[in-house]
Amino acid sequence: MTHTASFPGTIISAKNLHKSYRRGQVTVPALRGIDLAVETGAFVVFIGPSGCGKSTLLNLIGGIDQPSSGSLQVSGVQLEAASQAELTRFRRQHIGFVFQFYNLLPSLNALDNVCLPLLAQGWRWGRARQRSATILAQVGLHQRQKHRPGELSGGEQQRVAIARALAGLPDPPTQALLLADEPTGDLDSVNARTVISLMHELNQRLGVTLLVATHNLTIAQEADQVYEMQDGRIHSWGSPS
Q1: pLDDT given for residue 6 in this prediction
Q2: Of the chain's two ends, which shows fewer C-beta atoms within 10 Å, N or C?
C-alpha cells in the first residue's frame, strides 16, 4: 500500500516510483511504487529497518540515481527524464547531502573542508572563504573554523559536514533540499540531540526543506511528517505523536 499527501507549494512529487538493481542474473527491487508529496520547507523523516528503501529514496530525490519507472519531480525538475548533465546541474543548484560518516579531509581545517566543494564549482577563493565562514558561524563553529577534524568532537565534525552541504545552496535556500542519511548514526546521544536541534533550527530559520532517513526515533519526534517504510514501500505516514 502506498500513500500520498497533498500540500500547497509542493517541492517533491513522486508517483508510482520504482527502483530495482541487478545483482548478477537477479533483479532486486528496492522501491515498489512510492507515491509522495513534500511541502516546500517541511521537515520530513523516513524511518524503518535497514534495507527498507530509505537511502534509495533519498538518492533518487537527490539526483544521485534515477528511478526504474514512475515519475519524480523535485524543485520543478523532472528527474526520471533528466540527462546526466542536467542531474549534475540539479544537484549543484538544489541539493545538499549529509551522511552518517562525515567524509571530511583530515589534513584540512573546518573552513577549508567547507570551501573545497565551492572551489570545485568554480568559486573564487575569497568568496568561498567568506561564504564558508558565514555558514560555519550559523552552525555554531565560528571559533572552531581553524581546527582540523581530528581536533573536533564527532558532533562538531557533523556540524562541519552540515555546513559543507549548505554552503553551495542558494541564499536563501527556499527551493533547496538538505538530505541527511543517518546523520546521527555515528554519534552518542548528547551529540545526536545537538545535531538534531541544529538541523531543525536551520530548517525553520533558513526555509530549507529537510529530509532525513534514520533509525533514530528522537529525530522523528521533531519532524513535520514521518513516513514509515517497509520492503520498499511507505507502510504508514503521519505527523509525529
Answers
A1: 38
A2: C
Pairing relationship of beta strands 10-23 and 26-39 according to DSSP bridges: antiparallel
> Is the peptide bond prior to 172 cis by the omega test (within 30 degrees of 0)?
yes
**Residue 227 and residue 220: Cα distance in Å, rounded?**
9
218 close to 196: Cβ distance less than 8 angstroms: yes
Alpha-carbon span 49 to 55, nearest angstrom: 11
Among all chains, which residue has been given the C-alpha cell 538530505?
Answer: 179
Report the percent of the chain where pLDDT is more than 90: 71
